[in-house]
Amino acid sequence: DTEVTQTPKHLVMGMTNKKSLKCEQHMGHRAMYWYKQKAKKPPELMFVYSYEKLSINESVPSRFSPECPNSSLLNLHLHALQPEDSALYLCASSLTRAEKLFFGSGTQLSVL
Amino acid sequence: GDSVTQMEGPVTLSEEAFLTINCTYTATGYPSLFWYVQYPGEGLQLLLKATKADDKGSNKGFEATYRKETTSFHLEKGSVQVSDSAVYFCALPYNQGGKLIFGQGTELSVKP
């Protein structure tokens, strides 16, 4: 299994909603990442987990809350988002932080 | 700081044409270099990589050579296909991995 699986594929939410994005991998990778990608732009790093501990937070607003319940799962909890947060959210994993990244297909998020 | 500069797109080619996408970088030391590809509606996939000077990465007919003297990692393919239509990102790892610095991306469109 060489996949990173993200759910849901599409999500529409209001500014007062609470929702969660989920990411799963079964490759034994110990580093997991959240990236945000606007249309026609490169991905921007949000968070890095290494061995289930948060190791990088790129000054992301607190309305985004990551969680890594175990080495295979990564969640991104969303609350009180703004329309400008609409984007493709990509999860990635790697064997360790220094290795190549495997990306999921992303969750296309629209905030109304 | 470390950075990656890619040629701007979009690039439109006819099938079987030769492709070059330029990438130059600025970095401390000699990091690994990557090309990622993003097909429409999907996440990023690692296309190829090179880990040291003069290394040539290759995959699916694409090649790129790590040139230390010109700080370049240009992507080439001798004969493109319609299925190669995608956005291509050059990238290097920053801070011992965990964060990828991406170029701006080059959109390739191949016409039959």
Largest sheet of chain B: 6 strands, mixed
What distance separates the N and C termini of chain B? 41 Å
Number of strands of chain B: 12
Instruction: Provide the residue-averaged pLDDT of chain A.
Output: 93
Rg estimate of chain A, integer Å? 13 Å
Q: What fraction of the residues of chain A are assigned to beta strands by DSSP?
A: over 45%
What's the main sheet of chain A like? 7 strands, mixed
Q: What order do the SSEs of chain B take from the amino end to the carboxyl end, as H and E?
A: EEEEEEEEEEEE
Span between termini of chain A: 36 Å
Approximate helicity band of chain A: under 10%
Give the SSE order of chain A as H and E letters: EEEEEEEEEEE
Structure commentary:
The complex is a heterodimer of chains A (112) and B (112). In chain A, 36% of the residues are buried. The mean pLDDT of chain A is 93. In chain A, strand 5 and strand 6 form a beta hairpin. Chain A is mostly beta strands. In chain A, strands 2, 4, 5, 6, 9, 10 and 11 form a 7-stranded mixed β-sheet that branches. A 4-stranded antiparallel β-sheet of chain A has the order 1-3-8-7, with no helix packed on it. Chain B is mostly beta strands and 112 residues long. In chain B, strands 2, 5, 6, 10, 11 and 12 form a 6-stranded mixed β-sheet that branches. Chain B has a 4-stranded antiparallel β-sheet with strand order 3-9-8-7, with no helix packed on it. In chain B, a hairpin with a 2-residue loop joins strand 7 and strand 8. Classes of the chains: A mainly beta (112), B mainly beta (112). At the A-B interface, strand 5, strand 9 and strand 10 of A face strand 6, strand 10 and strand 11 of B.
Topology record:
The complex is a heterodimer of chains A (112) and B (112).
Chain A lengths: L3 E4 L2 E4 L4 E8 L5 E7 L6 E7 L2 E5 L6 E7 L2 E7 L7 E8 L7 E2 L3 E5 L1
Parallel strand pairs in A: 2-11
Antiparallel strand pairs in A: 1-3, 3-8, 4-5, 4-9, 5-6, 7-8, 9-10, 9-11
Chain B lengths: L2 E4 L4 E4 L4 E3 L1 E4 L6 E6 L5 E7 L5 E4 L2 E4 L9 E3 L8 E9 L4 E4 L3 E6 L1
Parallel strand pairs in B: 2-12
Antiparallel strand pairs in B: 1-4, 3-9, 5-6, 5-10, 7-8, 8-9, 10-11, 10-12
